[in-house]
Design a protein that fits this description.
Layout (H helix, E strand, L loop, with lengths): L3 E5 L4 H12 L3 E6 L9 E7 L4 E2 L1 H6 L2 E4 L12 H24 L6 E7 L11 E2 L9 H17 L5 E6 L1 E4 L3 H11 L15 E3 H13 L5 E5 L7 H11 L11 H8 L4 H4 L3 E2 L2 H5 L9 H9 L1
Parallel strand pairs: 1-2, 1-5, 2-3, 5-6, 6-8, 7-12, 8-11, 9-10
Antiparallel strand pairs: 3-4
Helix pairs in contact: 1-6, 3-4, 7-11
Length: about 300
């Protein structure tokens, strides 16, 4: 019988791609869903409801591996006090519920793998290249990621190998980050946000999914790993490339930072700031990125 991988957030952008990669690699896949879904020959769906602190125990007890991807979008809505709470709890509460079920049933796993984010290094633009041991920031993104990872660390205290994948901007064909910004560029109105000097640590969705697969099969992997390409891509770089790929030179002036702050409030730091992040640690495991050039990756993602 094939090993079972349970996904939270399995119906999202990354989750759908990861499900295909896992199935192609011979794993059976289970997905936690808030709505009732019909099982397929390859995927078994189980119900969960975070508001009611409910997860179908069978999903946890059946799993050999759990990959935690679920979490409310960081830039979907303004960061009100209520929204910040939703963002944090959507990442932490699933881990807490999983921990309780594992502990109460004396259930072990081959590995627990949790998403995290390069936001742990803070919303700031600087020349330093962040490593996994770079001190975390004390801003909203930094503290959210710290609490997210701390929750995952509680799983490791049960004697379960735990891996945390710190992800940057995920690129994919008409999906994720690109889906949000493509309409303006496609219409010929794309432009640079703020100074344009903010770095955009990025990764193609296929590479990200194969890092998760690597975390399953490589029993030496443990702890935090950055999952981004280490290059100098900035908002200005990406914006100009997108305009070029759509066949024009940007003519719309930069959107001033003060206007973005006016419309987005505190959340504006998520688009106005960004750091370079090192991928050296994951590469030392033997992992090889397939998408390393931003222009080629964008071209592939738009075709």
């Amino acid at each position: 019988m094939s090993a079972n991988v349970l996904l939270t957030g399995g119906t999202g952008f990354v989750g759908k791609h990861l499900t295909d990669v896992l199935i192609d690699s011979g794993f059976s896949v289970s997905v936690l869903s808030r709505s009732t879904r019909k099982n397929t020959p390859s995927i078994t769906y189980y119900r969960w409801n975070l508001k009611d602190n409910f997860i179908d125990n069978e999903a946890i007890l059946k799993a050999d591996y759990i990959i935690h991807l679920a979490g409310e979008g960081i830039v979907e809505k303004r960061w009100t006090k209520k929204r910040k709470k939703v963002i944090l709890e959507s990442r932490i509460k699933p881990i807490e519920l999983i921990h309780t079920i594992l502990k109460d049933n004396n259930k072990s796993l081959e590995a627990f793998i949790s998403a995290s984010a390069v936001g742990i290094y803070g919303a700031i633009t600087r020349q330093e290249i962040c490593l996994e041991n770079t001190p975390p920031a004390d801003d909203f993104l930094g503290t959210t990621c710290q609490k997210w990872e701390h929750a995952a660390d509680q799983i490791s205290l049960l004697g379960i190998r735990t891996v945390k994948i710190r992800t940057g901007i995920v690129l994919g064909k008409n999906e994720g980050f690109l889906k949000k910004i493509m309409p303006s560029f496609k219409a010929g109105f794309g432009t640079i946000l703020g100074s344009g000097k903010q770095y955009l640590p990025w990764i193609h969705v296929e590479d990200l999914c194969h890092i998760y697969l690597k975390a399953i099969v490589d029993t030496e992997m443990q702890g935090a790993y950055n999952a981004t390409i280490t290059d100098n891509t900035t908002n200005a770089t990406l914006s100009r490339m997108l305009a070029h790929l759509y066949g024009y030179t940007m003519w719309v002036p930069k959107i001033p930072a003060f206007l973005i702050k006016l419309f987005l409030g505190e959340m504006s730091v998520a688009v106005l700031e960004g750091q370079r992040v090192s991928s050296e640690k994951i590469q030392k495991t033997g992992f090889e990125f397939q998408y390393t050039d931003i222009e080629t990756t964008l071209s592939h993602s738009l075709s």
